[in-house]
Amino acid sequence: MSVTQTELRTRFAASLSELYGSEVPAYNTLVEVSQEVNAEVLAKRPDAERLGTIERVTAERHGAIRVGTPQELAEVGRVFGACGMYPVGFYDLREAAPPIPVVSTAFRPVDRAELAVNPFRVFTSMLVVDDRRFFDESTENDLREFLEARRIFPDELLGLADRMERDGSLEEAHADRFIELATAAFALSPEPVDRAWYERLEAISSVAADIGGVSSTHINHLTPRVLDIDALYERMTARGVEMIDRIQGPPRTSDDEPDVLLRQTSFRALAEPRAFRESDGSVVRDSLSVRFGEVEQRGVALTPAGRELYDLRGLDALPRTDEALHAADLAYYARSAAGELQPIVYEDFLPKSAAGIFASNLTGDGRSDASQRASRRDASWLRDVLGRELYDPYALYEAERAGD
Ligand code: OOG
Ligand code: NI
């Protein structure tokens, strides 16, 4: 028996979910409460599945990972490529408030049918070590040296990934091995963290320390999808889980109005035990708070015009029915065989919310100097680094609307 890319993605998402649940038990609570809320919405609202079947929504996760070098990013592209997940969109979080020294993309399936079977996606950020607004020359050099000395993905894993992309299938034993190695690559490392180095980076940016201060990478969060994020927020709070102070993204709409884009919230980063190496060489147990539990609710994708209106004037500027959103070309809809409007779900991310989620889980705003030289990073740079096509989210929504 051989394993397809779709099947590999499904197994990889499940395996990461198991790993993350074993590392961050509060994540299991989040998944449990999400499923509770989803079952209730399904029982109560006849249109509960208009943005995806309950099977899809129940399996749906997005992960977030952070890497340090173009080479690591290209390798991430190969590992996810094996799972039928391709880079979509370019996000520059250096422009966010507060600024974060990373640029990002999201790896995800790009076909509707693939998304329907398993919509796993991973928001992937790369540290920009040569951006002088954050890192002076000596920190840049030290970061480069540290990052270039580490290997996140073993050659065996990359070899299996390439074989899967080339052949479109893997033998069962190879697929098992791929899952084992890929999951291990994202586990929290027991390797002691060099305290002085970590703290030097942390003073600049906690995200820089999380990426460049440790010798491996890890999933930062794994996010289930919920059909009523306000209900979830209340229920988590009632269970005694400390949530960040708000839900990011557009405000709640009433039950008969379409949900748009993406709403997200999270429970606060938890103190996790980590080993540290002190300057005298001794190793001590301490903790770091960098990983948190996020949850999301998805709505209809907006067109560029709809998005501009939303970014400038907020949700109130948009009409409140599918028909009006469609007629004004502000959101994407397909037509069912019966001629009904079917919302095309937003499959991507919102940089403002991403920055908000980053910020509410950071220990401090860090330090940056806007008068210093920025380094150029854009979609074409990202495409070159990845050595593969970088999809434009709007082009994907357009094609879907057109029925391509
Ligand atoms: C990524 C933050 C972005 C989201 O859902 O917007 C993100 C990170 O924390 O590394 O995951
Ligand atoms: Ni996230």
Description:
The relative contact order is 0.16. Strand 9 and strand 10 form a beta hairpin. The strands form four sheets. The chain has a five-stranded mixed sheet with strand order 3-4-5-2-8. The chain has a three-stranded mixed sheet with strand order 7-9-10, with helices on both faces. A two-stranded antiparallel sheet has the order 1-6. It has one domain (2-301, 344-402): Uncharacterised protein PF07063, DUF1338 (2,3-Dihydroxybiphenyl 1,2-Dioxygenase, domain 1), CATH 3.10.180.80. It is 42% helix and 19% strand. With 404 residues, the chain is α+β, with helices and mostly antiparallel strands. It has helices at 5-23, 25-44, 54-59, 70-82, 112-117, 137-148, 155-167, 172-185, 195-202, 206-212, 229-238, 304-313, 322-327, 351-360, 379-386, 393-401; strands spanning 2-4, 61-67, 86-92, 102-108, 121-127, 169-171, 193-194, 221-224, 262-277, 283-298, 333-335, 341-343. The protein is built from 16 helices and twelve strands. Bound molecules: 2-oxoadipic acid (OOG) and nickel (II) ion.
